């Protein structure tokens, strides 16, 4: 038994010593970065991972390079992920504008507590509604580019939209004393809060409607 | 800034109409708001309000129940996929065919019995909306399927291939359940962990070359994944997996180093009973 094991290891070692490129790197385990080592595998892009040197240890002549189908698949993934990343950036850009229009509305609505007449307060806030309408249209256009993936990006505009809706509800109540309904909110923002678009008017299962008492 | 202004609004007396998932709440809440309304304006269209909220509550309840069922199915997928993985780990030169045959059958069973439940619940919609409910199960399935494929052929199971195998589960008139890119990559990252465990197991069984082949494969995957991780939505899970992956590659390389280099130093003293031998505790190998 012992000799069998010994033979096995002698065999492996002798195979190893026939390797035409004996190098310490073959056997030293990779535990720190070796920044200046050339990579055996030439790639289009510089590879800065610490694994760079371990890649050199593929000294066997019969070891295949990364299979082309593997590379092709991952290249496809990279393109898809980059596209979705840039879509997300465009969404965020529109959402930031929505956020700033919302802040303007909110600031003007605060005047209601300083006993300013309601129509005056509402006028300023109402002017933002058209801005928001345009912005939501822009958002809809971007989202239309990725059909079926509405909910993938939903989180990027969900909380901002909740704020918009709560402000609209407040304004509606100030004007009419009624609760803003789903369909009315849709009309105000000019966007389709419909199932085909997938917009869920009740995001996340908890939606806070604040009805304000005004003295 | 938004937070501070909303906090300011909250300081004023407020009556909240909080919509909960419970359909019982609405009558309770509505009556509270009515009683606290002491101003000339009253809430009109009261019954339509009730109806609207009632339908919201119904929708939410239905959605949550659907989500629950999906989570249950996902857990079963996870459990059974793990069983497949454990089985494949028992592979060795002697029992290869037998193990692979059983694993293939069991993977098919996961598909037919459990993933089909996901398909049934999702009914061709809301794949992204409910993704968090079934993502763990799908990741585990990807891990099991790719692990099996590697042990069988030494190659990586493509996303297209794995999705093709799921197509028959879906009704042709509906959008089929397809594994999305993110879940595939997450499953792949877990695969590398299993592969490294296999590699170390192979070393102790004396199959050093096979172990090296596994390691090369894992390095390839790691290399490809480093380009993708920064681009992924919610990349934080993936980043942890990448760190683990690198650690396990290093661990395996250390094991191989021990076998190769220190093995030569200690060969005259080889024997699993020698306390200084790195083979202490390793089962004897019949060659």
Automatic annotation (TrEMBL), chain A:
Record's GO cellular component terms: cytoplasm; nucleus
Which keywords accompany this UniProt record?
Answer: Cytoplasm, DNA-binding, Nucleus, RNA-binding
Question: Which GO-annotated molecular functions does the record name?
Answer: RNA binding; sequence-specific DNA binding
Query: Would I find Coiled coil among this entry's keywords?
Result: no
Q: Is ATP-binding found in the keyword set?
A: no
List the InterPro entries hit by this protein, alphabetically.
Translin_fam, Translin_N, Translin_sf
UniProt-annotated location(s): Cytoplasm; Nucleus
Specify the protein name.
Translin
Q: Which family does it belong to?
A: Belongs to the translin family.
Query: Which SUPFAM superfamilies does the UniProt entry name for this protein?
Result: Translin
Automatic annotation (TrEMBL), chain B:
Keyword Cytoplasm attached: yes
Q: Give UniProt keywords alphabetically.
A: Cytoplasm, Nucleus
Q: Which Gene3D superfamilies match?
A: Translin, domain 1, Translin, domain 2
Pfam families cross-referenced by the UniProt entry: Translin
Where does the record say this protein resides?
Cytoplasm; Nucleus
Q: Name one GO cellular component term.
A: cytoplasm
Checking InterPro entries in the record gives:
Translin_C, Translin_fam, Translin_N, Translin_sf
Q: Which GO terms describe its molecular function?
A: sequence-specific DNA binding
Family of the protein in this entry: Belongs to the translin family.
Give the matching PANTHER family: TRANSLIN AND TRANSLIN ASSOCIATED PROTEIN X (PTHR10741)
Can you name this protein? Translin-associated protein X
């Amino acid at each position: 038994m012992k000799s069998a094991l010994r033979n096995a290891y002698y065999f492996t070692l002798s195979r190893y010593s026939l390797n035409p490129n004996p190098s310490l790197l073959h056997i030293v385990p990779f535990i720190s970065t070796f920044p200046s080592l050339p990579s055996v595998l030439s790639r289009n892009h510089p590879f800065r991972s610490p694994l760079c040197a371990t890649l050199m240890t593929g000294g066997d002549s019969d070891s295949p390079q990364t299979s082309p189908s593997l590379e092709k698949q991952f290249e496809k993934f990279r393109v898809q992920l980059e596209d979705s990343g840039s879509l997300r950036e465009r969404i965020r850009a529109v959402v930031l504008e929505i956020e700033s229009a919302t802040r303007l509305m909110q600031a003007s609505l605060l005047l209601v507590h300083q006993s300013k007449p309601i129509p005056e307060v509402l006028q300023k806030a109402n002017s933002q509604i058209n801005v928001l309408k345009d912005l939501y249209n822009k958002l809809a256009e971007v989202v239309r580019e990725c059909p079926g993936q509405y909910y993938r990006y939903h989180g990027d505009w969900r909380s901002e939209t909740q704020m918009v809706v709560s402000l609209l509800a407040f304004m509606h109540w100030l004007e009419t004393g009624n609760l803003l309904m789903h369909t009315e909110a849709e009309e105000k923002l000019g966007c389709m809060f419909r199932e085909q678009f997938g917009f869920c008017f009740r995001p996340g299962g908890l939606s806070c409607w604040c009805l304000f008492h005004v003295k | 800034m938004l937070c501070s202004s909303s906090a300011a609004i909250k300081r004023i007396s407020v009556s909240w109409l909080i919509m909960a998932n419970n359909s019982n709440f609405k009558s309770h809440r509505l009556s509270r708001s009515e009683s606290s309304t002491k101003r000339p304006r009253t809430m009109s269209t009261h019954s339509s309000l009730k109806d609207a909220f009632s339908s919201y509550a119904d929708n939410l309840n239905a959605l949550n129940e659907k989500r629950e069922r999906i989570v249950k199915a996902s857990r079963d997928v996870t459990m059974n996929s793990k069983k497949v993985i454990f089985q494949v780990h028992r592979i060795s030169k002697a029992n290869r065919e037998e193990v692979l045959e059983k694993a293939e059958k069991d993977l098919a069973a996961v598909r037919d019995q459990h993933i089909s439940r996901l398909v049934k619940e999702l009914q061709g919609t809301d794949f992204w909306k409910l993704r968090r409910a079934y993502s763990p199960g799908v990741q585990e399935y990807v891990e099991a399927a790719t692990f099996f494929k590697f042990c069988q052929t030494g190659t990586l199971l493509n996303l297209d291939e794995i999705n093709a195998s799921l197509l028959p589960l879906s009704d042709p008139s509906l959008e089929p359940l397809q594994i999305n890119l993110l879940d595939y990559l997450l499953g792949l990252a877990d695969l590398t962990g299993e592969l490294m465990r296999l590699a170390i197991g192979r070393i102790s069984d004396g199959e050093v070359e096979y172990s090296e082949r596994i390691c090369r494969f894992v390095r390839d995957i790691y290399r490809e994944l480093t380009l993708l991780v920064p681009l992924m939505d919610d990349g934080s899970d993936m980043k942890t997996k990448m760190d683990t992956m690198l650690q396990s590659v290093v661990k395996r390389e250390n094991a191989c180093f021990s076998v190769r280099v220190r093995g030569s130093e200690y060969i005259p003293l080889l024997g699993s009973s020698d306390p200084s031998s790195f083979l202490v505790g390793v089962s004897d190998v019949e060659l």
